[in-house]
Amino acid sequence: MIRLVLLGLVLLITACTGRPSFEPSLGGPKLDLETYFEGRTVGYGQFQDRFGEVRRRFRVDISGTWDGQVLTLTEDFAYADGTTERRIWTLQKTGEDSWQGSADGVLGTASGIEAADVFNWTYSIDLPVPDGTLRVSFDDWMWRLDEKRVLNRAYMTKYGVDIGEVIIFFEKLD
User: Fold this and answer.
1) What's the pLDDT score for residue 132?
2) DSSP code at position 25
3) Can you say whether the dihedral through the CA atoms of 70, 71, 74, 79 is positive or negative?
4) What is the pTM of this model?
Protein backbone atom coordinates (compact mmCIF):
# COMPACT_ATOMS: atom_id res chain seq x y z
CA MET A 1 0.00 0.00 0.00
CA ILE A 2 2.85 2.40 0.84
CA ARG A 3 4.44 1.71 -2.55
CA LEU A 4 1.17 2.52 -4.29
CA VAL A 5 0.89 5.83 -2.42
CA LEU A 6 4.52 6.71 -3.21
CA LEU A 7 4.00 5.87 -6.88
CA GLY A 8 0.89 8.07 -6.92
CA LEU A 9 2.86 10.96 -5.37
CA VAL A 10 5.66 10.60 -7.93
CA LEU A 11 3.16 10.61 -10.80
CA LEU A 12 1.40 13.65 -9.35
CA ILE A 13 4.66 15.57 -8.99
CA THR A 14 5.81 14.75 -12.52
CA ALA A 15 2.41 15.70 -13.94
CA CYS A 16 2.87 19.19 -12.46
CA THR A 17 6.07 19.89 -14.38
CA GLY A 18 5.47 22.81 -16.74
CA ARG A 19 6.60 22.74 -20.35
CA PRO A 20 7.15 25.60 -22.77
CA SER A 21 4.83 26.38 -25.66
CA PHE A 22 5.03 28.24 -28.94
CA GLU A 23 2.95 31.13 -27.60
CA PRO A 24 3.65 33.86 -26.97
CA SER A 25 6.71 34.64 -29.08
CA LEU A 26 9.10 36.86 -27.18
CA GLY A 27 10.10 38.73 -30.34
CA GLY A 28 13.51 37.27 -31.07
CA PRO A 29 14.63 36.89 -34.68
CA LYS A 30 13.09 33.95 -36.56
CA LEU A 31 14.91 30.72 -35.83
CA ASP A 32 15.67 29.21 -39.23
CA LEU A 33 17.73 26.16 -38.31
CA GLU A 34 19.42 25.98 -41.70
CA THR A 35 20.58 29.60 -41.42
CA TYR A 36 21.53 29.66 -37.75
CA PHE A 37 23.39 26.34 -37.61
CA GLU A 38 25.19 26.58 -40.96
CA GLY A 39 28.87 27.15 -40.24
CA ARG A 40 30.40 27.02 -36.77
CA THR A 41 28.51 27.22 -33.48
CA VAL A 42 29.67 26.60 -29.92
CA GLY A 43 27.50 25.58 -27.00
CA TYR A 44 28.02 25.36 -23.25
CA GLY A 45 25.70 23.18 -21.24
CA GLN A 46 24.92 20.95 -18.34
CA PHE A 47 22.71 18.04 -17.39
CA GLN A 48 20.91 18.23 -14.07
CA ASP A 49 18.83 15.47 -12.55
CA ARG A 50 15.18 15.78 -11.53
CA PHE A 51 16.23 17.08 -8.12
CA GLY A 52 18.27 19.94 -9.60
CA GLU A 53 21.71 18.45 -8.96
CA VAL A 54 24.16 19.17 -11.77
CA ARG A 55 25.55 15.82 -12.91
CA ARG A 56 27.54 16.73 -16.01
CA ARG A 57 28.89 19.83 -17.78
CA PHE A 58 30.12 20.07 -21.35
CA ARG A 59 31.15 22.14 -24.31
CA VAL A 60 29.88 21.25 -27.77
CA ASP A 61 31.44 22.46 -31.03
CA ILE A 62 29.06 22.20 -33.96
CA SER A 63 29.89 22.29 -37.64
CA GLY A 64 26.81 22.66 -39.84
CA THR A 65 26.32 22.31 -43.58
CA TRP A 66 23.13 23.04 -45.53
CA ASP A 67 22.81 21.73 -49.09
CA GLY A 68 19.35 23.19 -49.75
CA GLN A 69 17.55 20.06 -48.52
CA VAL A 70 19.58 18.48 -45.73
CA LEU A 71 21.16 20.14 -42.69
CA THR A 72 24.06 18.07 -41.32
CA LEU A 73 25.25 18.94 -37.82
CA THR A 74 28.49 17.42 -36.56
CA GLU A 75 28.50 17.84 -32.79
CA ASP A 76 31.76 17.29 -30.87
CA PHE A 77 31.13 17.13 -27.12
CA ALA A 78 33.91 17.64 -24.55
CA TYR A 79 32.73 16.80 -21.03
CA ALA A 80 34.21 18.26 -17.84
CA ASP A 81 35.32 14.76 -16.79
CA GLY A 82 37.59 14.56 -19.88
CA THR A 83 35.41 12.25 -21.98
CA THR A 84 34.38 13.13 -25.52
CA GLU A 85 31.58 12.16 -27.84
CA ARG A 86 30.64 12.85 -31.47
CA ARG A 87 27.06 12.88 -32.73
CA ILE A 88 26.15 13.60 -36.35
CA TRP A 89 22.59 14.73 -36.99
CA THR A 90 21.05 14.61 -40.46
CA LEU A 91 17.98 16.86 -40.57
CA GLN A 92 15.64 17.20 -43.51
CA LYS A 93 13.18 20.03 -43.93
CA THR A 94 9.76 18.43 -44.55
CA GLY A 95 7.65 21.58 -44.81
CA GLU A 96 7.87 25.32 -44.38
CA ASP A 97 8.42 24.97 -40.61
CA SER A 98 8.76 21.20 -40.05
CA TRP A 99 11.79 18.94 -39.78
CA GLN A 100 12.69 15.26 -39.45
CA GLY A 101 16.06 13.92 -38.48
CA SER A 102 18.24 11.09 -37.37
CA ALA A 103 21.52 10.44 -35.60
CA ASP A 104 23.28 7.39 -34.20
CA GLY A 105 21.32 6.13 -31.22
CA VAL A 106 18.07 7.88 -32.17
CA LEU A 107 15.16 5.47 -32.25
CA GLY A 108 12.99 5.99 -35.29
CA THR A 109 12.77 9.54 -36.58
CA ALA A 110 13.08 12.77 -34.63
CA SER A 111 10.55 15.43 -35.56
CA GLY A 112 10.44 19.15 -34.99
CA ILE A 113 8.47 22.33 -35.64
CA GLU A 114 9.73 25.91 -36.02
CA ALA A 115 7.46 28.81 -35.12
CA ALA A 116 8.83 32.36 -35.12
CA ASP A 117 11.82 32.37 -32.72
CA VAL A 118 11.08 28.90 -31.24
CA PHE A 119 11.93 25.33 -32.26
CA ASN A 120 10.58 22.17 -30.57
CA TRP A 121 12.20 18.84 -31.30
CA THR A 122 11.12 15.43 -29.89
CA TYR A 123 12.89 12.09 -30.09
CA SER A 124 13.98 9.00 -28.18
CA ILE A 125 17.64 8.07 -28.01
CA ASP A 126 20.02 5.54 -26.50
CA LEU A 127 22.57 7.77 -24.74
CA PRO A 128 26.01 6.42 -23.92
CA VAL A 129 26.64 6.35 -20.15
CA PRO A 130 29.68 4.99 -18.26
CA ASP A 131 28.17 1.51 -17.81
CA GLY A 132 26.35 1.13 -21.17
CA THR A 133 23.44 3.07 -22.64
CA LEU A 134 20.36 4.77 -21.25
CA ARG A 135 17.20 4.93 -23.36
CA VAL A 136 15.44 8.27 -22.82
CA SER A 137 13.00 10.60 -24.57
CA PHE A 138 13.69 14.28 -25.19
CA ASP A 139 11.27 17.20 -25.42
CA ASP A 140 13.81 19.69 -26.72
CA TRP A 141 13.07 23.46 -26.96
CA MET A 142 15.19 26.23 -28.50
CA TRP A 143 14.65 29.99 -28.41
CA ARG A 144 16.59 32.39 -30.60
CA LEU A 145 17.60 35.27 -28.37
CA ASP A 146 19.36 37.45 -30.95
CA GLU A 147 21.41 37.13 -34.14
CA LYS A 148 24.18 35.07 -32.47
CA ARG A 149 22.57 33.32 -29.48
CA VAL A 150 20.12 30.47 -28.92
CA LEU A 151 18.98 29.07 -25.58
CA ASN A 152 18.16 25.34 -25.46
CA ARG A 153 16.29 23.51 -22.71
CA ALA A 154 15.63 19.81 -23.17
CA TYR A 155 13.42 17.79 -20.83
CA MET A 156 14.41 14.13 -20.43
CA THR A 157 11.99 11.37 -19.50
CA LYS A 158 12.18 7.61 -19.05
CA TYR A 159 8.91 5.67 -19.10
CA GLY A 160 7.12 9.04 -19.07
CA VAL A 161 8.73 10.14 -15.79
CA ASP A 162 10.97 13.25 -15.70
CA ILE A 163 14.57 12.29 -14.98
CA GLY A 164 16.32 15.58 -15.67
CA GLU A 165 17.03 18.32 -18.15
CA VAL A 166 19.80 19.65 -20.33
CA ILE A 167 20.39 23.38 -20.67
CA ILE A 168 22.65 24.69 -23.45
CA PHE A 169 23.62 28.22 -24.47
CA PHE A 170 24.63 28.34 -28.17
CA GLU A 171 26.66 31.09 -29.81
CA LYS A 172 27.17 31.47 -33.57
CA LEU A 173 30.86 31.84 -34.43
CA ASP A 174 30.59 32.67 -38.15
Assistant:
1) 86
2) -
3) negative
4) 0.84
